Each structure stands twice: as C-alpha cells, then as structure tokens.
C-alpha cells in the first residue's frame, strides 16, 4: 500500500517506517523535525519506496501534498510533552494537527486512519489493569485531554465519512532513538553523576513499559487484522513496575555500583509532577485477541532500552 506517516522522523514514527518498508509498503513521511531528526531516518533514507517531506502537519498545503495518492495514514506526529506547558501549544500540535490530517485524509480518499493516543486518556483509573471500555475517561493533564479530544474527532470523522479508524492507547514506550521519558532521564542523570540518582515523586509510581519494536508490531498487527469502522486498542506490556525498581534496572544495566537513589517526594501523594498518572497498567487482552503478544515484559523492555541508549 501507499502509506503516509506523520512524525515519521521521530522516536516511534521512525521505527514504524522501518517496519512498513520491510513489509513492502511505500511510505511518505511528513515531519517538521521539531522532535524527530534525519538521523532517525538513516536506515531507510535511500529506500526507493520512501519519500520525505519536511513540513508541519498543521499547514494545509503541506499535509495536502503529502496525502496525495496515499491509501492510509499513521498519524504519529504530536507534542510529546506530558508535563504541563502552554495549553495553546498542546492544542495546536495535537488537536489542530489531528483535524488537519483528518481533513487531508478525507480529501485524498484514504481508507484508513491510525492514531497514536495515550494511556493518559484514562486519568487515575480505579481499575488495573485498565480495559478499553473503562469509564469515565477523565484525563488529569492537558496532554491527556488533547489525546482524548483527538480520539473523539477521529471517531466522529469515521462515522461521518466512513473511513476506518484505529486508535492506539500507548503505555510508556521505550527504546532506541528515544529523546525523552523516564529511562532517558535516568540514563542522562547517571551519566552526569554516577553516584546519585534523583527520582521525581515518591518512588512508588507504578507503570507499564513496552519496547518500541513491540509497540510497532502491535500497530502493524491491528492495521492488518483489525475490523470494524472505529476501534481503540491498549498497547503495553502485561505487567507494571514501580519507579524504584526501574531505577535499579537502569543502574544495573549501566554497570554502576553504590548509587544513592533519592526520591524527591513530589506533589499530590507522590506523583512525579502535577498531571502525572501515578499508577498505569493497561489490559492488552483485546489486542491479544487478534493474535498480538508483547515479546518483552516491563523489566526486559527497560533493560533493552538502556542498552540501546548507552
């Protein structure tokens, strides 16, 4: 197929492009390189079935040109910062961007729209692991709210224009090419000071971590096997680990000794920051029902991510 990947020079997007080209698809990438880099595209930059357009997906001319001739779009481009920043930036780079890509997809006659959402749409879920039909969806961050708003827009467009939509609610994705997130943060801190590691929050935050290669396989699997006009799938490991355990894994993988781990406390009962979901663990049985299985648990994913980042 002829596919479009927004944000295809970023962390998850570039791994997705790698896999789609391996499967024989033709791929056009549009990316403004604000988060991604051309270095991430080096493995496929000369591939005959690959085309790169540098531009912003909120620019109607850019996304319209990129969409021409494509049959489906993986909309991965977004502002990835979960912590509170300027809400207008989140609105522009997440909600407005999604509208622009939806309009372009409809205009190009695409048949499928695939979107990387987030576990943050659930907010502080009282049911763990959390299934896709959990309610109410009550995000506690502007980032999560923008992802949920984008999901709603996609659902509306799917029902209005009869384009198939798939939404992927991602756990914490880790691995090579990542530039932010707790694993990257810990590796950088320990590189600067191999004797002391400061941890945001009280250290009891428990979350699920999934290797980026497993994440991409989940997306491709749903793309090939999923049915229905619109659906949402959780994508994560089958377990969760606390931040103290994660810190020890990173320290071990970096072959460091006598490291003092200091938990900084954090707001609202030990969160890392205001808006941080303290406990996140996704139920992935729905996607597993299509035949996908994560190949690594949270600890293995973190270990492989540290090895790649080092």
- Described by the principal axes of the CA atoms, the overall outline is globular
Order of strands, widest sheet:
3-2-1-4-5-6-11
User: What's the CATH topology label of the largest domain?
Assistant: Rossmann fold
Q: In sequence order, what are the helices and strands, one letter per element? A: EHEEHEHEHEEHEEEHEEHEHH
**Which percent range fits the helix content?**
25-40%
Work out the radius of gyration.
19 Å
Mean pLDDT: 97
Residue share in β-strands: 15-25%
Q: What does the model show?
A:
- This protein has 310 residues and is of the alpha/beta class.
- The protein has two domains: 2-172 and 210-235, Rossmann fold; 175-208 and 239-279 and 296-309, UDP-galactose 4-epimerase, domain 1 (Alpha-Beta Complex), CATH 3.90.25.10.
- It has helices spanning 11-22, 60-67, 87-107, 142-161, 182-192, 212-225, 243-253, 285-288, 298-309, and strands at residues 2-6, 26-31, 50-54, 72-75, 112-118, 164-170, 172-174, 196-199, 206-207, 209-211, 230-235, 241-242, 260-263.
- α4 (142-161) links the parallel β5 and β6 (164-170).
- The longest helix is centred in the first third of the chain and has 21 residues, at 87-107.
- The protein starts with a strand and ends with a helix.
Task: Set out the fold topology.
Blueprint: E1 2-6, H1 11-22, E2 26-31, E3 50-54, H2 60-67, E4 72-75, H3 87-107, E5 112-118, H4 142-161, E6 164-170, E7 172-174, H5 182-192, E8 196-199, E9 206-207, E10 209-211, H6 212-225, E11 230-235, E12 241-242, H7 243-253, E13 260-263, H8 285-288, H9 298-309
Parallel strand pairs: 1-2, 1-4, 2-3, 4-5, 5-6, 6-11, 7-10, 8-13
Antiparallel strand pairs: 9-12
Helix pairs in contact: 1-6, 2-3, 3-4, 5-7, 7-9
